[in-house]
Each structure stands twice: as structure tokens, then as C-alpha cells.
Amino acid sequence: MKKVFSILLILLVGIAVGTTWASDIEKVRIGTEGAYPPFNFIDPNGKLQGFDIDIANALCEAAGVQCEFVTQDWDGMIPGLLAKKYDAIIASMSITEERKQRVDFTNKYYQTPARFVVKKGTDIQISQEGLAGKTVGVQRATVSENFIRDNFGQNVTVKSYATQDEANMDLVSGRLDLVFADAVVLMEGFLNTDAGKDYDFIGPGYTNKEWFGDGIGIAVRKGEKDLQKLLNDAIEKIRADGTYKKINDKYFNFDVYGDE
Fold first, then answer.
1. Domain 25-111+214-251 listed as CATH 3.40.190.10
2. Amino acid 23: pLDDT
């Protein structure tokens, strides 16, 4: 009798302090940008599409939960999560130490380098001296912006934009000398389009952990351990059962996941 009473007491104490014994998550509201092709974008029919969206749907299916998407401008993405407009961010967000101060992350679900793009035939060297006096376009509040400001900010003029497309268009119009962003985004969303046919990569790819972190992960509010585990388990599941590769191959001819 004493043993049964002790077990009941432990259970009641666990409930009182908010311990979750089993996940009862049925729906996950996912914040995404919808302006970062090919990872997330809105098609001509007004529907969210892209690698991030397909991955999110696959994760929800693997976890047995319902997905609901909420679009949010990039620079309000983390504030929107903290304000509980959605439960998780699946929007190509880099896992960085700075962001870890505000949110928790899952393990990565992909990792790609950042690169510069210029007009073909432009004589620019990627160095402090070579970029002196140049104007570089970046998307606002991104790791790419932080990297450029920290590494080249004393020598270049940095112009930040709400979306990467806006930066690309200012490069075409001649208002910028270079743009700097994720290489895949620049390739699929710009270089492989008519607008970008006269432009190309220049210089190396950058994956420096200090700025680009541990890859791209899913952000959740601090303390949301059940949701974090649910998503991590789902990432492992779709990696193991071939779903991830199927989505990868729909968008890319290389492994976007990067090193294990």
C-alpha cells in the first residue's frame, strides 16, 4: 500500500511541476518566409512551395501531427515565434550561438555555403583590398549580413534588403557591385533565371561556424523539449527511410544535407 501511495505521489508531483510524461502534440504551426526560393516561396497560385515546405510536411507526416503554415517577414521571424504566432520556424534559419540565446534548435536538416555573385567579366578580387569601395547587397537580419559586416564592413558599403530577390534586382540594375547569400539560393533563385544569366559566382564558399553556425535547423521556443525531440526524431526518420533523399533530388542534383 505504501509503495502504491509513493508512486501516486511521484506522479502528482510531476504533474504539479509541469513535467510532460508523453507528447500529446497534435498540430504544429510552422513559421516560414515564402520569399527564399528554392527553399520557400509562394507560387503563382498563391501556394507555399519549396524545399523547406516539403521537408516540413514530411516531418509532420513522420511525426503523426498536422502542419499549419504561417508566413512571416524574415526580420520578424524569431519575434513571431516568441509571440506564439507559430510553434516552430522552418525557413532556412542557421543555427548560430547568437540565436541560441533566444531560441532552441533541432539538429540540422541541411547545410550549404554562402558565396558572392558579380556580373560576368567584372574584375574584383575577394579580399579586403579587392572589395574596397564596393557596395555589397545582403538580405537583412541574416548570417550573410553579419558575415559581411564583420569581415568586410570597414572596406565596403553594405546595403541590406527585406528579401534576397530585392538585392538581386538591385545588382541587375547596377546599384550594387556584388550580392552575398546562400549559394544554392543564388544559383536556383537568380543565376539559373533569365535575370541572372549574365552573372556568376566569384571567390570561395564560406561556412565559417562563427557566422554560419552548425547548419540549418528548426527553431522552437526555449523549453519546448517535447516538440524539439519530436522534430529531431522525425528528421532522423525521413533521413533513414529515403523521404529526405526524394525531396532533395526534387530540388537539387547534389546532397544538400552536407557532411554528417
1. yes
2. 61
